[in-house]
Amino acid sequence: MASPTDTGRDEPGPGSQSSLRAANEQRIITALRTAGPLTQAELSRRTSLAPSTVSGIVSILSDRGIVRAGDEPGGRKGRLIHLDLEDRYVLGVELGNGHLSMALATLSARVVEFVRRPLALGADASTTLDAIELILRDMLSSVGASHTDLVRGGVAVPAPLDVHGILSSSPLIFPAWAGVDIAEVFTERFGMPFSADNDANLGALADYLWGAGQGSHSMVFVGMNYGFGAGIVLEGTLFHGATGVSGEIGHTTVDENGEFCQCGNRGCLNTVASINRALELLAPIHPEIDSTEKLLDAAADGLPPAIRVVTDMGRASGVAIANVVNLLNPEVIVVGGDLARAGDIFTDPMITMATRLSMPAAAGVRLLTTPLGERVFALGGVALALGLDAPQSTLLT
Ligand SMILES: [Zn+2]
Question: How confident is the model at residue 121 (pLDDT cuts 50, 70, 90)?
Fold first, then answer.
């Protein structure tokens, strides 16, 4: 199923012809991935697309080397259409605050390359796209592929997107991309369809498919990076909310008269617990600790103020998690993101507080750290590019 943020190649936009074609291409690819080789008639029945539409799309996909007609003898039913899974690729991109990460995977969801690189905090869109292009060139070359072997892409964005995939609700949260249709910009730059979603949503999707959340009925992924965000998967489907901004727990109010938040409100959770806040707290005594990696290194090296601030963040995130547990009663909560990489000094106080403040009936929730580590958000981009955000396609991955 196509994401609401899909855009087409030529005339991007939710309602355009090219957007419709990209969505239909994705339906065909998803049908072949989940059911195996099918005739065009079977594809038409499975996708509810007209036979002429299926024929046209199969022809386009065949020209691009994504599908091929089998060698079986022809007959009344026609040849089986196969998906060429292993020599076509999708790209997952995480736009981080201060870093980029990218995962290259085959259409069968086998990850062949992962790269994480620092990027200047607040880097503008053009600088970011240039960096992505350079990294992508190296990634493709290392697997012996070319740009024409790329099929689709998915982008994880560290800010809320509206239902049209535009970062519009709070421009100061990720200012370099404010007001921009990110999927459209990527589609134009890289010449293939891209989709975009919030990073916590995509972290949830990746962990549900390939991480600790596999097989769960309901899970909440809590991403702990520069700010906090949650992605909610209910019965195999990402829950986006009415206007696309579900799970923004970093902007839940903890002190109505507290400090101003980037969202324009006051006293949000992010103003007391986030990497951004941790760096602000350390700045007067350790101004040299000015990045996520330096914070994590200082804590790992045993620097007391760094340990203290990471521990405080753990306690605050435990409070946030308890609120999520009491609100949604999920089967599993998975934490990920850079703060979760700090290890026990972060997760122990988090678990203590989450357990203490959860309703006893809900306290049986499994609280786990994603095994996908720093790759989780880029892998979410891969999952989005593969169309795995639809429940029917998660069954056979
Ligand atoms: Zn806020």
Answer: confident
Query: Do 94 and 79 fall into the same domain?
Result: no
CB distance 198 to 177 below 8 Å = no
Q: How far is the CA of 248 from the centre of ligand 1 (A)?
A: 9
Q: Across-strand partners of 329? A: none
Tell whether 250 and 354 lie within a shared domain.
Answer: yes
Q: How far is the CA of 262 from the centre of ligand 1 (A)?
A: 6
223 and 366, same domain (yes or no): yes
Instruction: State the pLDDT confidence band at 11, using cuts at 50, 70 and 90.
Output: very low
CATH of the domain at 314: 3.30.420.40
Structural domain including 221 reads 214-370
Q: Is 72 within a domain?
A: yes
User: For residue 330, how far is its CA from the centre of ligand 1 (angstroms)?
Assistant: 24
Best CA proximity match to 286, nearest among 271, 300, 298: 298
Q: Is residue 274 part of a domain?
A: yes
Going from the Cα of 75 to the center of ligand 1, the distance in angstroms, rounded, reads 62
Hey, what are 242's tokens? 């009415």
Q: What 3-state DSSP class applies to 38?
A: strand
Measured in Å, residue 261 CA sits from the centre of ligand 1 at 5
Residue 208, domain member (yes or no): no
Residue 343 alpha carbon to ligand 1 centre in Å: 26
Which residues have CB under 8 Å from 257's CB, separation 6+?
266, 267
Helix (H) or strand (E) holding 119: none
Q: Please state which of the ranges 61-65, 72-76, 285-289, 379-383 shows the lowest mean pLDDT.
A: 72-76
Same domain, 185 and 277: no
The pTM of the full predicted model, rounded to 2 decimals, is: 0.80
The pLDDT, as a whole number, for residue 396 is 32
pLDDT over 90, % of the chain = 52
114 in the same domain as 73: no
* Structure tokens given for 363: 């306290």
Q: How far is the CA of 228 from the centre of ligand 1 (A)?
A: 10
Ligand 1 mean position, distance from CA 260 (Å): 8
pLDDT at 390: 59
User: What CATH number is given to the structural domain containing 53?
Assistant: 1.10.10.10
In a domain, 388, yes or no: no
